[in-house]
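Notebook entry, structure prediction.
Reason for the run: the old model in the group folder had no record of what sequence produced it. Starting over properly, with the input documented here first.
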Amino acid sequence: MGRRLGGGAALIVRLAVVLLLAGLYVAAWAFAADRLPRGATVAGVEVGGLSPAAAKARLEKEFANHDTIAVSVGGARESLTAGQLGLHFDAAATVAEAGGGRSFDPRRLWDYYAGVDEVAPVVNIDGATLEQAVSGLEQRHGRPAREGAVRFTGGVAKAVPARTGLGLDRETTRAALEAAYVAGAPATLALTDVQPQVTDAETAAALESFARPAMSAPVTLRFDDQRVVLKPQDFAPALSMVAQDGELVPHLSAKRLRTIVDAHLGDAGKAVDATVKLVGGVPRVVPGRPGVTYDPRDVSGRFLDLVVRPGSDRTLDVRAKVAKPKVTTADARKWGIKEKVSTFTTYYPHTDYRNINIPRALSLIDGTVLAPGDTFSLNGTVGQRTKANGFVEGYVIDGGEITTALGGGVSQVATTTFNAAFFAGLKDIEHKPHSLYFDRYPVGREATVAWPTVDLKFQNDTPYGVLIETHVQKSTPSSPGVVTVSMWSTKYWDITTSTSKRYNVVKPGERVSTAPDCEPQEPNTGFDIKVYRHFNRDGHRVRTETMTTHYNAADKVTCKALDPEKSQG
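New structure, fully documented this time:
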């Protein structure tokens, strides 16, 4: 029989085998070093057997060619960079994933000697950047879904049909873009249907439950004994229906509703009198408005409930303090301002100051309304002629001589307004003709003003209201200015006029002035004249008024500088 090894010998043999295997493993590890496994490829790029640095450099060079990606969306094409899509190839992580680098892990050695196939590249994705890019593609090439909606237009509720949109599925699109980047190939993205959250069925339900009842009748807000009636077209701009969990729910703009309600009331709790204005060349009554102080929340807090009540129960009592207008809408209608009863036009020579002062004064008079019995005051309406009030210096007559003062030229407005009142048959309360006669004015029938002593006043002594309208066409170096004043009312008098011959005629003289503020002056003949205003009705003369006007003679003034030697005496 053979001899068996003793325990010690067997141990030595086993130890020798272990050392041999260890040596072989170390040799295999040393030979593999840190190189990538044989046969390894990344996106078709061979990196097997390369050091990590070499593999990283090769991959980075290859993926640099993938930076621009051709994208096709619904047949439309464009190019985007990897950076615009938030895609970044991580070469170092990919090399590590492929097995690059030293390791005693037996699996790593197995992969190196046995070889591996394709290794997926590591691509980092910036989700926010990618979403921004996909949203841009969707906006440019897709079509947003249109939600079903309700619109309130002109007091009518209308349905806006829902519409399916076209968009990009995020997960599918992300995968397609990443795959195209990895492969260095174009990306074809399919548009898919995007369903609206608010369907036509929800829109129809909203119309029946709220929108149509809201537009079915006016609502009345009762502030004490003052009523404000809001028609559907009045309050519709404050209403809307908004999407909430796939349904349309009523919404009220409290701010807009307050504006609508306040438009029917006075300003800041103050009443606004009714009046008459020209609208498109036609007199229209502007209703009076009560001055109401109230808490807007008392209206907005209950309005959505109010507008869906039946027609007989659409009144809301609102706690308020009410100030009533002195002139009511009924009063303004009784004035009977409906037609032009007189108009008068004058012309003025070109000067810059007249082109400022005359339009300014006319703008302050335009739109004045005189109720029966009211008296018009030009000074009271226009105010003091100051720079702050929009006036500049111009020529005026003072003590029979021409000088300068703020508001020069306003007498042109006074004369035109006086004649419009004259032919409307209004009562002459106060007017003062110029002390000198200017042939651009109707002889004996003109007026001047000066603050505060000389005014133009007339009274509306007819049974009807009077609205004053003014118009001006500014002068140019080649054309005169044109001033027109008209009176609107109901025709009460037919006015005709006549004049006497001039009498008490005084010829002007001549003189030379050496005054430092001398203004040259053309001569004016002085005279007296009578103007007759005939009041007629139904073809019969009722009465005649007589006005006597006196004009002073004005010497011809020549300005001459004072001789310095004679002035020394």
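Summary: The two ends are 176 Å apart (CA to CA).
The old model has been moved to the deprecated folder.
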